[in-house]
Amino acid sequence: MSVTVTPPTTTRSRPRYGFTFAADGRSAAALRADPGGGLTVETWRPTASGWAPSPTGVPADLDDQLLPLPDGRLLLVRPDDAGATVLLVDARPGRPSAVKAGPAERPSTVELCRRPEHAVRLAPPPPGEPTALACLIGYDGTVTRFWWLLPDGSLVPFGAPLPGLTSGQGWLPGPRLALTWTDPAGVTRVLGLDPGTGATDVLLDVGPDTDDRVALTDPDHDLLVATTNAGDAEWIGFARPGSGGDPWFPEELAAEERAEPLAVDPTGRYVLLHRRRGAHAELTVHDVPAGSTRPLATPPGCPRGPAAWTADGIVLPWSAPTVPHATVHLDPAGPPPVLADHPGAAPARTVTLDGAAGPVQGVVHGGGPDWRRAERLLVALHGGPHARWSYTHDPLLHSLAADGVAVLAPNQRGSTGYGRSHAVAVAGAWGGPDLADVLAVLDGLAAHRRGLPPPAVLGLSYGGFLALLTGAVAGDRIGGCVALAAFTSARRLHRAGSAGVRALIDDLAGRDGVDDGWGERDVLRLAGGLRAPTLLVHGARDGVVPVAESRRLHRLLCELGRRPTYLEIDGAGHQLTHGATGERVVAAVRDFLTALAPERRAAHRLPARPYDARGDRKPTDVGGGDFDDQAECA
Q1: What are phi and psi of 526, to 5 degrees?
Q2: 582-595 and 395-402 helices cross at what angle (nearest 10)?
Q3: Which of 66-80, 90-104, 600-614 has maximum average pLDDT?
Q4: CA-CA distances (angstroms) from residue 566 to 79, 204, 451, 534, 617?
Q5: Can you point out the beta strands (E) in 117-186?
Q6: For residue 32, what are the contacts with CB-CB under 8 A and spacing of at least 6?
Q7: Which of 31, 173, 323, 571 is close enough to 17 for a disulfide, judged by CB 3.0 to 4.6 Å?
Q8: For residue 17, is pLDDT > 90?
């Protein structure tokens, strides 16, 4: 058993995104953040000492999708405003077409095809398919279509156009493609599609109000692993569609929050499951025929992507606070591997805090044993609202911790991993129970910080909305407010957002009011109370929260006589702390927090716009860029 940590150390510390295995589990690919702020593609292969990456130098974007092929090549889907381009990247060493570029070989990159659909993704072909590189699935906003993608870039359609959207798939014997299908009425169930005849049939439809989805398939053993949310529980179930039997859902796999099936073992008997346990992860192995489940020993941290289970064991990407990215090999019958810490990484710990209605868990990065008394303290609020801070490496939080800022990341009500009641507490009450928990946490910190400046608060997207609400009602309990890609009210976001954003707000009843005396949760209405120094950062091409949200708030705060710091990044999308914009956002936040230091506060006047580098745009009250129907308010 071993753990592979990407060598050298300077490479290992760079964040990875979109880690994906080939269909046979013996190669992988990811997007790697480079020192210059961009992303490039890297491939991963097993070596004698474990899995190791190889940079390709192929530039990439955070929205790019990767599909590694078993022969070492990979397919890349690059979306743009007009659709998507599919590229074939060949970075195999010693290939006949290799071109020497100094000491390295330049990868071959060929454009295979373009599609006009605004949502395009690739899936592996079925086992034994001799000609197709992949199955291409395109959604044009109304119907989903399917093609075989051939090596010369040609597309061969199969099946009839399917009204609605598919969002997950896997192959069964036949071959038959199992699909997570959301029909035009919004009902989600599992369909089977025969690519030869084009016929479809329903594989799983638990009820009219359930959300039934494909999780995994094993075509060699006729196994479908699915999830559903029947009743008040989240279920994992199994079916063998080729035998004609009914699906079954073991009672022991029902829980308040859904587990994530990660992989099936080569015999088809065992399924690897991941469940959130607070800020930590729990991996278990379920014996499908026996109906029993046992825990799997893991190192500290959480998985950061899919898993592959081969005859050599389980491999999956992993992260811990002091391990930015590793690829761990787990022996189902052995002890966990020991991860090597990245030199200079700030340690972290989980803590219990007093919320407004009971204890809440938080993750503290840096700050030492007496972190509550750190000179600079930041309370970081996650997005979602259904999300959480996990016990992993976060580029923004760890960069700040390495710079001497103690970072507290609480999992207030609305966070996942703590049971259904904790997660759904904010349904119909955005900025209600979660805001109350944040204020209670600030009160608890104040009791420890006499003689020290109050902490700053930071959040992204929904977390930015919550940070702004906190700043508006917390008074002198905070010393600064950072809002990244934030919106100012759920009602306003619902009017301006995409179909996907509106659906999320409706699902969580985000426009319902909270009856607690503070009135409607509209930051523009409450802006008069936002007196702490404020930093607003937004991407000019944010497809989830329109940039007009931050522009309006910036203009209003200036009219109120405040001096907010505003940074708008041209060409940037919603995930500001990831990809090409990550380092720039980290620098802006670091500079802002440094300016709040007590010895500098009296002499420092925050300018309205300190960042005038090329690519930033002057804020104006105009619309918010392009929107992706599949985007979520995260």
Answers
A1: -95, 5
A2: 40
A3: 66-80
A4: 29, 49, 30, 8, 10
A5: 119-123, 134-139, 143-149, 155-163, 165-172, 176-182
A6: 11, 14, 15, 16, 39, 40, 41, 42, 53, 55
A7: 31
A8: no
Q: How many CA atoms lie within 13 A of 568 on its CB side?
A: 24
Encoded tokens for 130: 């001799």
Q: Would you state the structure tokens that stand for residue 328, as one six-digit string?
A: 């761990």
Q: Please give the single-letter amino acid code of residue 197.
A: T
C-alpha triplet 26, 29, 32: angle, nearest 5°: 145
Q: Which of 130, 128, 137 shows the shortest CA–CA distance to 162?
A: 137
pLDDT at 604: 34
Instruction: Give the three-class secondary structure for 166.
Output: strand
Nearest to 632 by CA among 501, 518, 525, 530: 501
Q: CB neighbours of 254 closer than 8 A, spacing ≥ 6?
A: 233, 234, 235
**Has residue 100 got a pLDDT over 90?**
no
Cβ–Cβ < 8 Å for 353, 382: no
What is the secondary structure of 413-475 as a DSSP string?
TT-SSS-HHHHHTTTT-TTSHHHHHHHHHHHHHHTT-TTSPPPEEEEETHHHHHHHHHHHHSG
* N residues, the chain: 634
Q: Is 603 helix (H, G, I), strand (E, B) or coil?
A: coil
Residue 317 and residue 606: Cα distance in Å, rounded?
41
Which residue is associated with the tokens 């608890």? 444
Domains of the chain, residue spans: 348-601
Query: Which whole-number Å values give the CA distances from 112 to 157, 398, 632, in the listed order?
Result: 16, 39, 30
Q: What is the pLDDT of residue 597?
A: 65
- CATH fourth-level superfamily of 348-601: Alpha/Beta hydrolase fold, catalytic domain (3.40.50.1820)
Per-residue pLDDT tens over the stretch 479-506: 999 999 999 999 999 998 887 888 889 9
> Considering the entire predicted model, what is its pTM?
0.86
Most confident of 65-74, 517-526, 579-588: 65-74
Question: Of 14-18, 51-55, 89-93, 389-393, which gets the smallest average pLDDT?
Answer: 14-18
As a whole number, the mean pLDDT across the chain is 87
